[in-house]
């Protein structure tokens, strides 16, 4: 094992390999920052370039794209309010308000450092706990998967904003959108209402870009306060290094949030099919629940940025656990990685770490090196990206709109998706104007099909519905879901009561002052 580690270390740290990894990390960041270009698309485009490389070098390059991509969505999420990838949805909740308050450098520094720490924690867990965690994840049946998604859906209760009714309506609309088109098991058309435009369904990426990118672009066309522009511009020319050091100190003084979010990301990543889009939201939700001041989340709360970015970046290590231990890809990006390994004539499965330990060790080392590159390149690129805040809107809006259209079209090469993008974007803009939260809708679109698929699989396996409550892990997850909803409702009522008491106190103070005059 020592010889295998030294071989892997020598192979990854070759100057040419390091240069390729740095370039791949940069490419992953840029690709993920462009709305519509997913991490999986970036890895797929990289795959043909690695065919002529040695296995160790090719895998290191693709992992660099992976690591860079999970942090790249931060830039567009913070500066434009548009999640570049599905794994950056929760990042927009606090990073964008923070940037609007004149702290774009702090928002980016928080996200980059949290991504770096989350990646390192996931690597450590990947090395130490890969076999037991992989065995646990594989033992989960459709009952446990359904219960896990039900628990994840309870996040809607903490993302409802100022109205529970509006938030639940948005979540139900998202679940309804996910049912349009072919059903996930039998591929039969449903809820198309005779429109050929809906025959293939509404892809999640189209919903994500439409809800966040298109609606945000329409909002950007409205007049905005010049003070926000001046405040953000003042930080563009400053030195980001003191800002980053301040973030490092403040984060390390309160490490529980970043560690908890990273552990959640690893566990969710180890569950095949879950992915970083779920861990991003779950980590944010748990940070909000654990906070003494949950009302600050959504208004530029630093711990919200830390939780969301640590959660999605740590998913890389978690998703590699079933891939390395059992040959089961944890996400579409991991499936591409597995294909790259198999192209080089290496079988992926339980004997991978025994037959090719040098390749497995090279994956561990490459992830650590790519995480360092991600932090360094992100800090260097920070000021360049922040100059987007000074670019006139009549330039930014058409360019971003073109990127959204290109990303939507390249997803399935269908012009009909562009019409859906325009319709969903307009719908998202109207929802924002009517004060309906967008996050529950997107969450419903993400989790709805997964919940339906596993529910139907469970009943196809056995008609006994009591298995959801008699299987220990499933029962535990459902119990946690009930507690999660109860806690969210309690917190919402308590928050409303505090707001009412504060308003009454201010009214009494105003009346006392008026009577004294």
TrEMBL record:
Start and end residues of each DUF112 domain: 18-443
Keyword vocabulary terms for this entry: Membrane, Transmembrane, Transmembrane helix
InterPro entries recorded: DUF112_TM
Transmembrane segments: 20-47, 59-82, 107-130, 164-181, 193-214, 262-283, 359-382, 394-411, 473-493
Keyword Phosphoprotein: no
Domain of life: Bacteria
UniProt key word Metal-binding: no
This protein's name: Tripartite tricarboxylate transporter permease
Native organism taxonomy: Bacteria, Pseudomonadati, Pseudomonadota, Gammaproteobacteria, Oceanospirillales
């Amino acid at each position: 094992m020592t010889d295998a580690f030294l071989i892997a270390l020598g192979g990854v740290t070759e100057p040419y390999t390091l240069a390729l990894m740095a370039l791949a990390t940069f490419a992953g960041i840029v690709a993920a920052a462009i709305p519509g270009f997913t991490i999986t698309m970036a890895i797929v485009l990289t795959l043909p370039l690695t065919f002529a490389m040695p296995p160790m070098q090719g895998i290191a390059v693709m992992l660099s794209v992976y690591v860079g991509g999970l942090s790249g969505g931060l830039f567009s999420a913070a500066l434009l309010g548009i999640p570049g990838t599905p794994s950056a949805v929760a990042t927009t909740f606090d990073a964008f308000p923070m940037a609007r308050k004149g702290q774009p450098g702090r928002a980016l520094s928080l996200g980059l450092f949290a991504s770096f720490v989350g990646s390192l924690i996931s690597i450590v867990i990947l090395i130490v706990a890969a076999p037991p965690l992989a065995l646990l994840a594989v033992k989960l049946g459709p009952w446990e998967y359904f219960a896990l998604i039900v628990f994840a859906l309870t996040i809607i209760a903490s993302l409802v904003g100022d109205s529970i009714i509006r938030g639940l309506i948005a979540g139900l609309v998202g679940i309804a959108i996910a049912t349009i088109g072919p059903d996930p098991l039998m591929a039969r058309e449903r809820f198309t209402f005779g429109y050929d435009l809906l025959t293939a369904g509404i892809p999640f990426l189209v919903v994500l870009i439409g809800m966040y990118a298109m609606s945000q672009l329409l909002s950007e066309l409205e007049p905005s306060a010049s003070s926000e522009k001046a405040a953000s511009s003042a930080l563009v020319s400053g030195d980001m290094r003191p800002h980053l050091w301040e973030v490092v100190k403040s984060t390390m003084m309160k490490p529980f949030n970043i560690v908890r979010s990273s552990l959640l990301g690893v566990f969710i990543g180890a569950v095949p099919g879950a992915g970083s889009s779920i861990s991003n939201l779950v980590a944010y939700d748990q940070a909000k629940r654990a906070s003494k001041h949950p009302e600050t989340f959504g208004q530029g709360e630093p711990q919200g940025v830390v939780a969301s970015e640590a959660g999605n970046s740590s998913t890389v290590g978690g998703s590699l656990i079933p891939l390395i231990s059992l040959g089961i890809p944890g996400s579409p990006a991991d499936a591409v990685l597995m294909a790259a390994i198999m192209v080089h004539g290496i079988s992926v499965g339980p004997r991978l770490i025994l037959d090719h330990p040098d390749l497995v060790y090279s994956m561990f080392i490459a992830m650590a090196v790519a995480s360092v590159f991600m932090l360094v390149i992100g800090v260097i690129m920070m000021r360049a990206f922040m100059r987007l805040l000074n670019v006139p809107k009549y330039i930014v809006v058409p360019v971003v709109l073109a990127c959204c259209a290109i990303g939507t079209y390249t997803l399935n090469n269908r012009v009909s998706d562009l019409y859906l993008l325009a319709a969903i974007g307009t719908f998202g803009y109207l929802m924002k104007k009517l004060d309906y939260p967008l996050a529950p809708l997107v969450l419903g679109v993400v989790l709805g099909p997964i919940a339906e698929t596993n529910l139907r699989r469970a009943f196809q396996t056995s008609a006994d519905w009591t298995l959801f409550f008699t299987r220990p892990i499933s029962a535990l997850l459902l119990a946690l879901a009930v507690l999660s909803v109860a806690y969210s409702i309690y917190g919402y009522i308590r928050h409303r009561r505090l707001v009412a008491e504060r308003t009454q106190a201010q009214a009494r103070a105003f009346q006392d002052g008026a009577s004294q005059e």
